[in-house]
Amino acid sequence: MAGLRICSVLVTGASRGIGLGFVQQFLGMSNPPKWVFACCQDIKGQEVQELQNLASKHPNLVIIPLEVTDPASIKAAAARVEEQLGGSGLNLLINNAGIAKLNLLDNETLEDMTLTYTTNTVGPLLVSQAFLPLLKKAAQGSPGSALSCSKAAIVNISSSGGSITSPEGWDLMQVVSYRCSKAALNMLTKCQSLGYREHGILCIALHPGWVQTEMGNSVGVTVGISWSGSI
To answer: Where is the signal peptide (predicted)?
Structure first.
């Protein structure tokens, strides 16, 4: 992140795992953002304690409640961020929040498919739509035509599990609904890149690789039944 020069960044699913890691990295930069918005479902529970500890040390960290499957929650979060920015735009949106169900192909269900798709694909769509005006404002206020995270960007945290040509780890875990949702997220990202480039907004999908979080052990083997908030 050494080359980043951003004034504001928002991370969803920021209470733990990869999302929390992003927040810690941004706060630890030699030239940190003026505002780091950490969004999570519950801002008062035990799971958010680490964020609260960070906020007590970093006045530029703002914790905001955001449920990515709830349009009203998304709208309220966008209004809160806009108010905090005070006329400035949002440089970087990281759609990190997600959920997975460890179902096999033969026992995948309508309910789990619907919930996973809604969270992992529709959620990033709705969040990006809500923050688009602030991203456009940031792009308009940045000199030059080159697309970059320092200007205005949407970063969707995806997975190689969503790859159609290289479906990694099938023998280890099938997670069908998760794979389908990430494949759809990849297409959403492509659509965003085509639709938003005229506004100067970079749109990319990133695969973080195996990361040791609450979801897995030291070799990246998932051991839980389901997870959310840090995919």
So the answer is: none
- 37: number of Cβ within 10 Å: 28
Tell me the CATH number at 114. Answer: 3.40.50.720
The two counts, helices (H) then strands (E), for the chain are: 6, 8
Provide the whole-model pTM: 0.90
Evaluate whether residue 25 is within a structural domain: no
In a domain, 117, yes or no: yes
Q: What is the tens place of the pLDDT at every residue in 11-26?
A: 999 999 999 999 999 9
- What's the token pair of residue 122? 């529709």
Is residue 205 domain-resident? yes
- State the number of CA atoms in the 13 A half-sphere of 173 facing the CB: 20
Domain hosting residue 69, numbered range: 8-14+33-213
Residue 119: φ, ψ to 5°:
-75, -50
Determine contact, residues 121/184, Cβ cutoff 8 Å.
yes
Q: What is the pLDDT of residues 126-142, one digit of tens each?
A: 999 999 999 999 999 98
Please give the C-alpha separations between residue 167 and each of 53, 164, 230, in angstroms, as whole numbers.
39, 6, 21
23 within domain boundaries: no
Task: Read off φ and ψ for residue 91, nearest 5 degrees.
Answer: -75, -45
Residue 196 Cα distances to 8, 113, 139, 188, 199, angstroms: 19, 28, 11, 12, 5
How many domains does one find in the chain? 1
Structure tokens at 177: 């609904």
